[in-house]
């Protein structure tokens, strides 16, 4: 007796799966907001930017005046043995001094130090932009991976259940003499294969969830559908110019070069003298002799010029000059790398959109084909193996569509991350 198999997923239901969402779902913007709070990488980058800002303030402060207050008081006894008529005396020696120093000339060392600190701050800010853009891309990838894994798991479970039902009915038809042993063996083998694929899909889902928790800091419960990224509104040439101009890697390399040049200026300044204005006031009591008292103030100029240091300054200048050449080479390398990344990502994003359209067309075609083949097998017009093949192709098409949808968003965000865009081209807010 032939028992008809009810299809577990119609073509319309397949297409609806990719558009359905939950009103209470966590969306991609919420996942990114949670990740920004959770991420230790961006916290480290923010701390480095704060430290660089503090170093800039310190370098600026070095150009201004400094004041130092020194004081001392003690209690003791002095015995001068009759010298100057003083014998054994109880004394309370004390001293108090205030000194103010204002650098007047350092040969450019202080201005070079400030320029280097400013360049270092801008380099740290570029590093923070890179960390934020990388975090955005990581969240998008983790989010998409979970969604793809969930959809692939649902497909694998559907296919496993369908193959189990086909195998069960094949057994009954074989016992009734309606099909050959080879058809029954094929159905049994496909059932085992579907079970193995279901186990692999479930394992991938657990791995994807664990990765999501590591990046976002929260469990991926009831995720909203992936947003549709906006299509690029510029030509590749315009994008390349913007990517090189705004890339955090290029910006960091430019600032590294600026810091190296400033360091060279500071090293060369050591060849010259330093001059500072100094003002000092002091009060001394009970020192040197009992009852001693001295109040004084002085204003003058301090200077220092190292005439010979056995070549230490020259070696420092040579080292800094080599650092400048290395920074220049690093800047050229950064620009070349960004240009190559931009070219690759641009064409990959374009290819991802083409694959998405192809995957959608293939899914619709395989859905119709599977439904038609199922009817033809049920009518005895085609062998059972054709039904098994059609269901497998439909499952593959479902997986390909899930992966294609995710790839479009990931590649769009990767394209924009090259230029340091942490908002993924407007999908969500850029923290900058």
Describe this structure in words.
- The chain contains nine helices and six strands.
- It is of the alpha+beta class.
- Strands 1-4-5-6 form a four-stranded antiparallel beta sheet, with no helix packed on it. A two-stranded antiparallel ribbon has the order 2-3.
- It is elongated, with a radius of gyration of 38 Å.
- The N terminus is likely disordered.
User: What is the overall number of helices?
Assistant: 9
Helix content: 55-70%
Question: End-to-end span in angstroms?
Answer: 69 Å
Q: Give the CA-based shape.
A: elongated
Overall mean pLDDT score?
87
Radius of gyration, in angstroms, nearest whole number: 38 Å
> Based on DSSP secondary structure assignment, what is the total number of beta strands?
6
Give me the strand/helix succession: HHHEEEEHHHHEEHH
| Structural class assignment | alpha+beta
- Stretches with pLDDT under 50, minimum 5 residues: 1-23
Q: Provide the β-strand percentage band.
A: 5-15%
User: Could you give the order of strands across the largest sheet?
Assistant: 1-4-5-6
Biggest β-sheet description:
4 strands, antiparallel
